[in-house]
C-alpha cells in the first residue's frame, strides 16, 4: 500500500522523488533520520491470459472482466454469466431414456419422439439421449409383445392338454 499523502512515484524515472534538505545531496541518498518513507516502485501488472491489453491506463483489466464499460463480451459468451440455450439438455430426452430403461416403454417412445422434435427446433443438447430412449422403448415394447404372445401360447397349450385329476 502507498501513503495517499505522498506524491505518486514514477517507476521509469531514475531521479529521486524526495524534496527538502535531502534533495541537495548529490549522491541521491536520503539520511537515515528522514521522516519520509522509502518509495517503492509499483509492482508490474500483466494482462490476464486471453484478455486484451488496456490502452492508456497502464493497468490490465481483472481476469474475466471486460476491459472497459460498454465493451461487448467475447464471441460465444453471454453477458452476466447466462447459459447458452445450446448448453442445456432437453428434459424430455432424459425422461425418455430413463423411462425406457425402467421398462415403461410407451412413455419412453412418446417422450423420445417429442424430444427429438423439440431438439430439432431449439438446438438443445440431448439428441443422442432421445434417440436411445426411443430405440430402447421400441425394443422394450417389442420384447414385451413377444413375452405376452409366448405366455398366451403357453397357457393355451396347458389348458388344451385335457389332463384331469381323479381322486
Notable features of this structure?
single chain; 167 residues; rod-shaped; 0% strand; mainly alpha
Question: Can you give a write-up of this model?
Answer:
There is one protein chain. With 167 residues, the protein is mainly α. 37% of the residues lie in helices and 0% in strands. The protein has a domain at 98-159. The chain is built from 3 helices and no strands. The termini are far apart.
Describe this structure in a few short sentences.
Residues 92-146 form the DUF4190 domain. This protein is mostly helical and 167 residues long.
State which percent range the strand residues make up.
under 5%
Q: What separation lies between the terminal Cα atoms?
A: 107 Å
The sequence of SSEs as H and E is HHH
Regions with pLDDT < 50 over 5+ consecutive residues?
none
Q: How many alpha or pi helices?
A: 3
Query: Structural class, from helix and strand content?
Result: mainly alpha
Give the number of DSSP strands: 0
Rg estimate, integer Å: 39 Å
The average pLDDT value, as a whole number, equals 76
Q: How is the biggest beta sheet arranged?
A: none
| Proportion in helices | 25-40%
In one word, what is the shape?
Answer: rod-shaped
Organism: Cryobacterium flavum
Region (Disordered): 1-82
Keywords: Membrane, Transmembrane, Transmembrane helix
Biased composition (Pro residues): 1-10, 38-50
Write the layout of secondary structure elements.
Elements: H1 91-101, H2 105-122, H3 127-159
Amino acid at each position: 500500500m502507498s501513503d495517499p499523502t505522498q506524491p505518486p512515484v514514477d517507476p521509469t524515472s531514475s531521479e529521486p522523488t524526495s524534496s527538502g534538505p535531502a534533495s541537495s545531496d548529490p549522491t541521491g541518498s536520503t539520511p537515515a533520520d528522514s521522516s519520509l518513507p522509502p518509495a517503492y516502485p509499483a509492482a508490474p501488472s500483466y494482462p490476464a491470459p486471453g484478455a486484451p491489453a488496456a490502452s492508456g491506463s497502464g493497468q490490465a483489466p481483472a481476469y474475466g472482466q471486460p476491459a472497459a464499460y460498454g465493451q461487448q463480451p467475447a464471441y460465444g459468451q453471454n453477458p452476466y454469466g447466462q447459459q447458452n440455450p445450446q448448453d442445456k439438455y432437453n428434459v424430455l430426452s432424459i425422461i425418455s431414456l430413463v423411462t425406457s430403461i425402467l421398462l415403461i416403454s410407451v412413455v419412453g417412445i412418446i417422450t423420445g419422439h417429442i424430444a427429438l422434435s423439440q431438439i430439432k427446433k431449439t438446438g438443445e443438447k440431448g439428441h443422442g439421449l432421445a434417440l436411445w430412449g426411443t430405440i430402447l422403448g421400441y425394443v422394450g415394447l417389442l420384447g414385451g409383445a413377444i413375452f405376452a404372445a409366448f405366455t398366451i401360447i403357453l397357457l393355451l397349450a396347458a389348458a388344451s392338454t385335457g389332463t384331469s385329476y381323479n381322486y
